[in-house]
Design brief:
The chain is α/β, with parallel strands linked by helices. Among the domains are: about 30 residues; about 100 residues; about 55 residues. About 55% of the residues lie in helices and about 15% in strands. The protein has seven helices and eight strands; from the N terminus they run αββββββββαααααα. An eight-stranded mixed sheet has the order 7-1-4-3-2-6-5-8, with no helix packed on it. α5 crosses α6. The relative contact order is 0.06.
Length: about 290
């Protein structure tokens, strides 16, 4: 083999080795040929890196293919899908950068959305989701603000008033729990009196003769029943008497229904009235004859 041929062979081997090395390096960094399938613009990408995972519904469907700084507040990343021909990216697509665990790793949560299909290489607007440390920071800020407000509320006057209130409450509790001067001092005598009243009630109930009481009650009920029957009979007799009077039967009935009796009585009363008036006017008009046998 001639020297020029050997040199050409060695040179070709070196070029192939360099090419293989560059292709392997690009593959390890997540680079691919042909450009990204879709581009996403962000205000800030945080710690997102090349070849970071792109997921849809938790399944990895691609990777980040390049991060390009455009201007302050605008960074564009490329997304390369594993099976780009199977995804239908539309104008309603969303891409949110979210944290993975607590080590600062980031991934892109993608949603193809619905609407007008996008052309390969189009750009959409992305969002940055709040991470765990961001949420903790916000919670810490809220806690600090709450403590500041609490410190402003708990001024010296409020603390003094609270101390006085607690002191008064303690005194009241001491008075209530005092077995000699407090309300609890009356509990034992009250319980003793209640026990005596209960004993007396038991004795009274034990002295009752239920059979005698029941017999008396039965007698009373029978007497009441007899009185009720007599009252009913008297009522019937009164109804019969009133019926006889109304119908003109008997002496009282004839008197009550005789219309001439009323006229005669009125005439008699009128004559008697005239006589009395005449005597009052002429007392000497009436002669009195006394006969002596």
């Amino acid at each position: 083999m001639s020297a020029p041929y050997k040199e050409a062979t060695v040179g070709l081997i070196v070029v192939l080795a360099v090419g293989i090395f560059l292709a392997g390096a690009l593959w390890l960094r997540g680079k691919s040929w042909g450009g990204a399938d879709v581009y996403v613009a962000y205000r800030d990408v945080g710690t997102l890196k090349d070849a970071s995972s792109v997921r849809i519904s938790g399944a990895q469907v691609g990777r980040v293919d390049g991060i390009h700084y455009v201007a302050p507040g605008k960074v564009v990343i490329g997304i390369k899908f594993n099976g780009g021909e199977k995804l239908r990216v539309t104008s309603g697509a969303t891409a949110s950068i979210e944290a993975v665990g607590m080590l600062g790793d980031m991934m892109v949560v993608f949603d193809p959305g619905t609407g007008r299909p996008l052309v390969r290489g189009d750009t959409i607007e992305g969002t940055m989701a709040a991470g765990l440390f961001d949420k903790a920071s916000k919670m810490a800020d809220v806690a600090i603000q709450t403590m500041d407000r609490l410190n402003r509320m708990l001024d010296t006057t409020v603390i003094v008033d609270l101390h006085h209130t607690l002191t008064s409450a303690q005194r009241f509790m001491d008075y209530v729990s005092d077995s000699t001067r407090g309300p609890t001092a009356q509990i034992n005598p009250t319980l003793v009196s209640l026990q005596r009243a209960t004993n007396r009630l038991d004795s009274s109930l034990a002295g009752f003769n239920a059979g005698a009481i029941q017999a008396r009650l039965d007698t009373t009920m029978h007497a009441a029943s007899d009185a009720s029957a007599q009252l009913a009979a008297l009522s019937r007799r009164a109804d019969s008497l009133m019926t006889s009077v109304q119908e003109g039967r008997g002496s009282v009935g004839r008197l009550m229904n005789d219309t001439t009796l009323y006229v005669s009585l009125r005439a008699t009363l009128q004559s008697l009235t005239d006589l009395i008036n005449d005597i009052k006017k002429n007392p000497g008009k009436i002669g009195v004859t006394v006969r002596v046998p």
